[in-house]
Amino acid sequence: MAVTRAARWWACAATAAAVLLAHASAVFAGDLERADIARRFPPPLRVGDKLRDVPVWPLTSELAPDAGPAGYVFESIDLAPIPGFEGTPINLLVAVDAEGRFLDVEVLRQHEPVFLGGLGPAPLHEFVRQYKGHSLRQEIVVASTYGTGQRNERRVVLDGVAKATASVRIVNQSVLGAALTVARRRLGFADRGSNAPATVVRDLPFEAMGFDELLRRGLVQRLRLSNADVEALFAGSDGAGIDAEALSDPAGLFVELYVAYLNAPTTGRNLLGDAGWTKLRGDLGDDRPAFWVATRGRYALADDSFVPGTAPPRLALAQRGLPLELRDANRDYAHGPGPTDLNAALILTVPAYAGLDPGQPMEFGLNISRARGMILPVVTQKNADLQYRPVAELFDYPAAAPPEWLVAWQGRAVDLVVIAVALALLTSILARPRWISVEPRRLYVFRLAFLAFTAIYLGWFAQGQLSIVQVTGAIKSISAGAGLASFLYDPVSLLLIAYTAVTLLVWGRGAFCGWLCPFGALQEFVTLAARALRLPQLSLPAGVAGALARGRYAILAMLAGAAALAPASAEWLVEIEPFKTSITVGFAREWPFVAWAAGLLVAGVFVYKFFCRYLCPLGAALTLGGRLRRWDWLPRIDACGKPCQKCRRACTYDAIAPAGNIRYDDCFQCLDCVGLVHDVRRCGPQLLLARKGRSIRIRPLPAALHPASPSR
């Protein structure tokens, strides 16, 4: 196509800018790359690519390649960026297995003054080592003083760091906040039932009530344990039969536990009074759930060793099997009506990041311990649970969330609309190409703009690069009997797959390869830049080109066979495609992958679309699919190839045979030949016949009438 020198230089600059943008997008990705993770988790563990929906690296085992993820590795700053003591989030590398047990926790980056210029980093590193082996199904808290760590089946108390209490608590919140997010998103913990959104407290008119009425209405709930009930808990253990008072008065009250959700105005104002409720609302600026918890009887919620502002050692909270952090609000609030013989009463809050749904059932576990012996006592601990059932009238229950795949589509709605409009535009152009193609400048500008959209928006921004990985992934899924439902979770790719499948039947492989492949578009811009720099362009001999083109089918067969028979091998064989390196991660990978992708782009500088025409396994698959094409739709005239060769010489893809027919297996549908054959100024036979006042018959020329392409 005829282009100006300025336009060529503009294309060169646009290509450079697009590549720089791709690099810039990776600058803020995080501290670690996949290679950094792989060095920390050697074989038989294998580190997968970072997921898009939640920023984690999946771990699989070479010993059980079909067992699914063995765990996940993630950086806490991506999931729970809680500011540290001096305002900067601490970044930790956290690894959990598929059951929610910590595999490791490592400090990546921290700016805590006490660990920089005070104690040094060693105590912090020692602190995070304690997580290994513990489960997210346990309650993990930090001891108030160093060296008081203890644990039972539900609670793990980590040894703290003297002089760094605030910092290690922030570390604990960062670790648990990030890990709990992964547990919910990937391990199925604390699922809100069909991913329904959390309930919302209703703004109801205040209704004054006494404590008995609050109990009757369920706004305050209680667990009552007699001495006999507690003795039954310890039956058969070392703690049985050592409580003399319980044995002498079995019917006597051991403990009565009260729990009330304070965020609901009717409950909060009645229990705390107007002044206390107003103060509480001010303190709960981030909408943390707050509970009034109190006890009466022989056993207290908190004893003399309890440190205000910490987690109460005798109480745990869980929802749908996942422990949630409780912390004393450490505030003085006015109290309204209630029992006069309470032995403890606390306002306990749950961090907002913990994901508690206040309108759903939860469990408050009261830990009771007994010690046998004086010198080296044998401590036995048991738990009694209050099954807390929120009062439904206090909450609005939003409708259940749509399926996760539909959420993915809704989240990409803007991208899908933009891409759908682009596809509609492309369809109209390919269906009626004469107007756009007959004027070379018009076609050049449109094609350049559309390819820029494909590379920058469709590729780097919307991550819409179709890949042979989707073909091998489908083969793996079908071979494993897993179906193809996973494709629903990537709506942009699925839209492109559907469009490409339809266009294969109409136009062949060229609709995708020539217009919708981001890497192909990037090659196009590299070629334009090379032409602007007047670099030499090479044309391979027909025999060499044919042999290379047939080689892509061998690559496709190798990948398909590996996907079906050796899935682990397919994972690295697909790296023959540079799409992941150049488009998906914007060249932010290890140097061998970047060198391979860059080398293919350099090859395309000298041999037009080198990778697309001679190596691309996806192109080979689409070429095979294009054999189902129903029409030879590109117009030809009787003089094409007999004797006119202008279109053939102009075709940079070498997709026109000497006889004049289009080799659709090699055609990328750039529309240059369509413009030529319709333009009386450029088509020699058209011009000659027009001057003689004769007409020319334009028709699709059946490919079957002419020799096949050497690449077919």
What does this protein structure show overall?
This protein is of the alpha+beta class. The protein folds into four domains: 34-186, no CATH class; 200-396, no CATH class; 404-611, no CATH class; 635-705, no CATH class. 42% of the residues lie in helices and 16% in strands. Strands 1-2-3-4-5 form a five-stranded antiparallel sheet. Helix 19 packs across helix 24 (617-626). The chain is elongated, with a radius of gyration of 34 Å. It starts with a helix and ends in a 12-residue tail after the last strand.
Can you give the helix content as a percent range? Answer: 40-55%
Strand order of the largest sheet: 1-2-3-4-5
For the termini, the CA-CA separation is 27 Å
Give the CA-based shape: elongated
The tally of structural domains comes to 4
* Biggest pleated sheet: 5 strands, antiparallel
Provide the structure class.
alpha+beta
Record field, number of beta strands: 20
Please give the count of helices.
27
Q: What is the residue-averaged pLDDT?
A: 81
Rg is 34 Å
Any low-confidence stretches, pLDDT <50, length ≥5? Answer: 1-29, 145-150, 703-712
Q: How would you describe the oligomerization state of the chains in this entry?
A: single chain
Please state roughly what percent of the residues sit in beta strands, choosing from under 5%, 5-15%, 15-25%, 25-35%, 35-45% or over 45%. Answer: 15-25%
